[in-house]
Amino acid sequence: MQRKDPMQRNQRFIFILAGALLLLMLGEAIFYTRIGGFSYFAYGSFIFCTLLLGTVFFVTRRTYRRMEQRRQRALSGDAALLAQPQPQPDANALALPVKIVLRPSKTILLEFLAICYGLLALVVCVPIILFFLSHHSSSITIKAVASNGHVNSAQPPILYATLPMIIGVILAVLFVICLISFVFTVLASESRSRQEIEVDEQGISTRFLGVVTRMSWDEVLSFAMWGRANSRTALLFELVSKDAVARWYQLSYRHAFYTWLAALKPAMPIDEYRRVMNALPQVIVARTGKPLYDLRHPYSRT
Asked: The organism sits in which domain of life (predicted)?
């Protein structure tokens, strides 16, 4: 049965967006070809990104197939996939109801956008600079004119002379675009990236990648750790019912770089967040009667 999975929905959106960017890159390559000849850099970038996207797509598909096989084994009660050690069941480990919130960090988003701006500036400006440099020698000919014993050289084309101004305008436009993108990202990420977990006596509700999933305790068929997570990254947990998958991340603070990549910060103090997230599996195991399964690859388990 096809379950509603917010992560698969999000990945479909990302692949569609990446496909649109590839079309833009192809359009850029065609544009440079029409105005100045074949651009090895533009077409090379397009081919490289196409191959990269295709590889990521097939690897992701293959990974999901393997994980679905592991999920089915967990649903059938395969003891080989039980997590070690198991959470100690304790329905009272948390004072219910409790709400756990992870919010996108504006500082991290700004840093990430600055990196994207630099990469975008290189991708856009480098082909333009290479184009002018490659055509400078062929378009500018030195004409020796014998006039009163003096030799005059032809002046560079006006367009070439204004190259710094053109690059400056492009960088300014890109900066404005990135600034607008930052404002839009801050506004949109609050609803899409914000993660919420609400636990009460009746069940659990999660908000993950903008999708809200509500699941009562008696609907839960499986409780698992998912993906390729290890001690350096955020752990991904899931609860599976007949027709839905509820997911959430548990951040790890052992490595600052991986925490930075998560771009999420808990709304409560970090020590309190750790205590609550460590107690959450105990409550779930006690309330659902389901053990915790470890669906990670064997080499990534800790």
From this structure: Bacteria
